[in-house]
Amino acid sequence: MKKKKEVILILSAIVFVEIVCIAGICARDSNPQFSPNVTVRQVESQAVLYTVYRGHYEGVGPAIDELLELAGEKHLTPIGPIYTGYLNNPLLVSGDHWLIEIRMPVPMDALEFAGTLGEMTDVKLIPAMKVVSAVKPEGQLDPGPVIRGLYALISQRGYRIAGGMWQSVLYNDDSEDYLHIRTEFMIPVL
């Protein structure tokens, strides 16, 4: 009887190990691993035309259009990609109340407009900073691995976070589908 229990226990262990192996293979095949290329770099100071948008991120498009229109009226040529970042925590605040700052890099002489454009739209100088950055490539729907890669490098290297995460669309084929957008994520660090 004791021998029979030992055989059943051994067979059960073998079956368990096989189930774990099969589950691991299925998980690997259904979710290909993506390892982002995370870098640390210095971002020079820059002047930005910015506005603060209140609402869900999906509705930010018209605010970006208005910012581009204002840039045209003031003869300010964008000199880099537009960045967006949350000013409050989107996990703690409902989407109707998200505060999203939209930044458009412009030439330094645009600082002459600082303080003249309004309460929620203006020009300001962003100081130079060190950032940890990574790109969500076109064809990668989930930005999670990219963001986890940023935080992993920050932790591994002992950096301290010095501000909120910023996102910039580097490539968009005019598709609304996030799958077809290449996006850079940046976190300022010390």
* Helical content (DSSP H or I, runs of 4+): 25-40%
Number of strands: 8
CATH topology: Multidrug-efflux Transporter 1 Regulator Bmrr, Chain A
- Percent in strands: 25-35%
Within the largest sheet, what's the order of strands? 1-6-8-7-3-4-2-5
> Termini distance?
66 Å
* Low-pLDDT residue intervals, each spanning 5 or more residues: 7-32
* Major sheet details: 8 strands, antiparallel
The SS-based structural class is alpha+beta
**On the 0-100 scale, what is the average pLDDT?**
83
CATH-wise, what's the superfamily? Regulatory factor, effector binding domain
Supply the CATH class: Alpha Beta
Radius of gyration: 24 Å
The backbone outline, from C-alpha atoms, is globular
List the helices and strands in order: HEEHEEEEHEE
Count the domains. 1
CATH architecture descriptor? Alpha-Beta Barrel
Structure annotation, total helices:
3
Written overview of the protein:
- The chain has 190 residues and is an alpha+beta fold.
- It has a single domain, classed as Alpha-Beta Barrel (Multidrug-efflux Transporter 1 Regulator Bmrr, Chain A), CATH 3.20.80.10.
- 29% of the residues lie in helices and 29% in strands.
- The chain is built from 3 helices and 8 strands; from the N terminus they run αββαββββαββ.
- The chain has helices spanning 2-30, 61-73, 144-157, and strands at residues 39-43, 46-54, 83-86, 99-106, 121-126, 129-136, 166-172, 181-189.
- β7 (166-172) and β8 (181-189) form a beta hairpin.
- The radius of gyration is 24 Å and the shape is globular.
- The termini are far apart.
- Residues 7-32 have low confidence and may be disordered.
